[in-house]
Amino acid sequence: MARLALIGNPNVGKSVLFGCLTGSYVTVSNYPGTTVEVSRGMLHMGGSKHQVIDTPGLYSIYPITEEERVALRILTDGRPDVIVQVVDAKNLERMLPLTFQLMEFAIPLVVVLNMIDEAEQNGIEIDSGKLSQMLGVPVVATTAITGQGVDQLLDSIQALMPSSSASRVETIALPPFSDSQMRAWHKRARELARQVMRKTDTRRGLSRLDRVLISPVTGMPVLAAVVYVGLYLFVGVLGAGVVVDLLEGAFKDYLNPLIERMTAAAIPWQTLRGLFAGEYGILTLGVRYAVAIIMPIVAFYFFAFALIEDSGYLPRLGFLLDRAFKKIGLSGRAIIPMVLGLGCVSMATMVTRTLPTRRERIIATLLLALCIPCAAQTGVIMGLLAVRPHVLAAWACIILSLFMAVGMLSAKILPGARPTFLIEIPPMRVPQMKNVLVKTGARVAWYFKEVVPLFALASALIWLGQVTGAFDLIVRIMSAPLAVMGLPPQAATAFLFGFFRRDYGAAGLYDLNQQGVFTGNQLLIAAVVLTLFLPCITQFIITIKERGWKIGIALSLFILLFSFCIGVILNGALIVTHLHL
Amino acid sequence: MNLSEPAEEILEALWIAYEETNTKRLKLSALRVIPEIGVLLELIDAGIITHAHGDDAVTITERGLIEARDAIRRHRLSERLLTDILLVKRELIHETACQFEHHLHKGVDTNICTLLGHPKVCPHGRPIPPGECCEEGLSMTLPAVSPLAKLKPGDGGWVAYLHTTDPRRAQMLISMGVVPGVDITLLAGFPSFLFQIGEGQFAVDQQIAEQIYVRLQR
Q1: CB spacing of A319 vs B192 below 8 angstroms
Q2: Three-state DSSP class for B10?
Q3: What is the complex's ipTM, to 2 decimals?
Q4: Considering only CB atoms, which chain A residues are within 8 Å of B169?
Q5: Which of A68, A113, A324, A411 is exposed most, by the fewest CB atoms within 10 A?
Q6: How far apart are CA A373 and CA B121, in angstroms?
């Protein structure tokens, strides 16, 4: 079985091509740095199977960011049999230096001129035959998104496949980074491009839409509109409101009674029945939370987010907000993990590897874990506080202020240089509905696989605790710190859920609130503390994987302590000011 | 003051030695060029160095330091001018600059410095001592070379050089294709900087935009 590695600059369409070759989906978006991990899939060709490896984008074989390092490792350690370099045909000149660098690996190479349709629209003509001749490697023009040219690519790959007897060079010494070598490569690229490329149109410049998006005067209102329509109306009102109510109603009126009846018939033992149905049953509580509350909110958010990311809006937002992000020790680049974090903090923590320095990665990880509520949680909190708009406003102000304060403080405390902002801005594109739907589906599925077992586990543990009496003990122990924050002892269950996932905790608040155990003040305190709380076990594991044990545990302890302290302070402030929300 | 061409050469060699050792007492054997006795006498007469009998080192005076600094500034500015504007081949720059700088009298260096957008390093990467014009940030209506940050949207030219002290950042820019010689156009300058190279567009912050020097084309 031979291995093909898809290598190339960021945002050239490697993942789309991966889908074409293997038939399996990996996330595709319109900004550099969508792919941060290696994906593998199978290519069936001429009766044999080959492995295709999708890699994060890299600008050169001298990596700067983590995800570039991941891609390079595939070449240095993995030694694939064939390298498929994917190139944005519009930017041939800028991408050829990487071709020369890849040739240093002494691995059979094929160059794919992708997005050839966009190049043609821009009045660019490329003589791929001549280019192939001059480079000495096969060159194929494709439009991966429509599948055009993929057959020719397969032919070229087939011709490059090594015979089993061929001896392979196992290690090669890469030339060290040098300014003059890089210049020489770029000069050669310019000369080569001049000979094979014809441009008839003028250059891209700024479109009218771009002007609107990146100028603060018009860009900020656009941002506000996107947040209002996309987040508030679509996810909040429609997803978290209408759809959640519908599904909750379905559970309460039809499904839960049905489950109760079925378990009653199937399981004679009352205590065991409680594991599946009942107040904390896996089916009546765990699955209900996951399916009726979390799923619609998450699905609606990811749908809106997919539309935004496929349009190419996010890097432009980075341009607009870089100055503000510098104040919290980050650059405009961090906008992508932060906005993704509003969907799922765990996914976003993985994406922080696109940030260039360790300092930025730590600050981003902390802010994501502490101050960015994921879609499920935001949705539940909005649903919870919708009837008390002033509490919702207070919650939003407090979280936003803490976000800024913690960011500014960590930017002061953590050593290291100011971050620099440098990002490639892709053209704005019309999102393809198919990709938006498939991506949303894939993300919701991923989310579900993470969430449902945890919900089931939490339900099972609580059931076990109830059976053994440990649950009451824990609730009693927790009532003391809760009382310091001015919260009633019943809130303990919500916080107990919160240890599994903080959105689960918020969902617990939702239930408790419907029983009317909270005053306005208590609701605010509980919502704020649970927003700041440890995100979830998945996020914890990913943080440890990305940042290491020490930082993972230090961050968690800090978050636990910090959220508790803010709860105490908030309670104190409300008492002193005699405010009753 | 008018020194001879060889004397000016020695003056620069003294500055380089002073830059490297940061002491005013400089060994003659450590200089880039071994001075002839006549040149040494010329420098002593001009009050630039003092020399004790039998010593193998000279001491550069306060006045000498000022003169040497100006001389090296003229030399390195000449090198920049020859590289960025007159497109003289790299190998010939030093030689040509030695002859060229000699004719840059007071005031002319200010104009050249302003024309070049107050460069901070010579083409070999050595620092150009800043003049008054750099501190005042003088600008011309039509400078020839300017940091990207000073351009107006729509202005463009080609990348003359990158001036960054951070090798990682230089590597980042070069990898992305911001290399000397490529065409570049500024598209927007607020709140960050947006520029175009080929069909690609990049957003950078002020700090990076100040480090990309552009040879303007109109």
Answers
A1: yes
A2: helix
A3: 0.88
A4: 420
A5: A324
A6: 48
